[in-house]
Amino acid sequence: MILRLLGTVPGRSVLHCWAFAAAASLLLASAGKAQDEAEEAADAAEEAAAEAAFDVNMIQISEQQLAGWVFGNRMELRGGAAQTRRGMVAEALAAEIDLVQAAVPLSDPQRRKLELAGRGDVERFMDRYEAFAARCPNRPIPQDKYLELHQEAQPLAARYRAGLHGDGSLFRKVLRSTLDAEQLARFDALQAERNRKRYEAVVRATVVMIDQKVPLTADQRDRLTEVTLRETAPPDVAVEGSYKYHVALLQMSKIPQERLKPIFSEEEWVAMRALLAQGRVAEGMLRRAAQADLEE
Amino acid sequence: MNQSNRRHRRRVLPAILSAAILVVAGTARGDDFLGNLLEAFGIDRPEPEPAAAIVVGAMPGFAGAEDAFVPQLKTLLRAELHFVRKVCSPDEAQMTEITRGGMAAVRDVAKRFADQQARNTYQWPDARGLLTKAVQKKVAEVMPAEAAARYADEVAAREQARKTAAAMMMTTLVDRRLCLTPKQFDEVTTATEARWRDEWSQDFQMFLYEEYAPVPEVAVISPVLTESQRKVWGARSDHGRILFDWEHGLGLQWAGQVEVGKDFDLDAADVSPPTDSAPPAEEPTDDGINRTHFDPKRRPAPDAAEEAS
Fold it and tell me: How much is the pTM?
């Protein structure tokens, strides 16, 4: 239409365009005025509500958020309904019993006892979680109450991360009383081997991190890995999160200097000593993790 | 605030619309509509100036952006030069040549970082891998074949060590959920290594954030799992990847400021001027990062940009 308005004579086409533009402007401007007035009234109401909310600084916690505090980012658990969540947590028990079975053939009664104990751990944990969730009000709460609830969720989260059937669980207690001495020895050996493999992974990854700062030859890398795995043991408590590699540095720092120093040149040893010193920050983490274990 | 903006827009819109109609009409006619208009009012139209040349990589506001990345990359290069000296024992002239090659690579990698930063994708190039590749190329040029082969073997061994360590870390994450037996632990590691992706060993600090760290797909490890383990692993959610700032992947911030190779004088070897004379844009390489310098019309693929954190 615009194009059709344009004639072949330049002066005429200019006039058509100006007229069209002016008409469009007038139409839009008048339609906007009425809308302005309605929106100004709505603005005032909205601002008043926002100010009231700001004064009391309230926070609303969703059930999904509570689940996030305890189960981390596992979406299948955060989003699941209570029964689904309970079922999913229980499924890990089958993998735990499979592990025992891999070390020692279990009789049917032994397996049943373990299943019962494992389900007890799941029930006990989920009951604790649901009782905690029930205490959380389903309405906006003040910020200090929010922080208090978040703190309250931490032991539950730590328990979940550590595994529901690990040390201190009903499952472990029943396992110890159900297996005979020989079976128990075999299971303990299997667990020790698993710990060693996990520790080896962390040591190798830590050597990679060292290698990024102090590039090592294949021979240096092998010697450092070998001496660390031979001379140190995994710590009694697991440290997760950002200090995992610091734990390996800490363990390396306990190796007598005369076994480590020959692996490096003078310049490298200066850098290596600085890295080993950094490992000491993990000491506090280990102490806190051990304390949390005791409290559980 | 939003409504007030909308109101403001409604007032300005008619004026913009009028102008737009005029411009569209003029453009659509295909002749010099604005020229005719100015002529009708007796105004001389100035001669159009020639368009400024677009220098790709030197966009206004981005010129020199790569300089911010250079100091950290120099630290990486010093460590790698220390490694070359240890493995190849070059003489002074050879070392100077290799250092020059390394510094040219630092400039190149810094540009790639600046490009990625301009795209705001948090998909950082593998700086360490690129620098090593450039240094290795220079070592092959200036060192005797035997020394160059020794260096190449060491680089390959280092890559293998990274791969094995990363695969084992991935297995520890599987183990936490599935209670693997020691035999399964080895089998999962082997299966993971067999379907390797280089990005998995680019940043080892990724494994400190377990829920976002890479883990093998169920199809990869399924043959070595029991039925109950398969069920648990299959129900696992994918949380996407956590995206870090550019320095994170370099690993230099971990465990404090510790460096080797401080004696290398990199400034003397820096033959490239710092910013304005950027080298010509290059073709995509096998690292998956397109090296063409910043071009606002080229946007990252939506899936890459939308990786959730």
Answer: 0.71
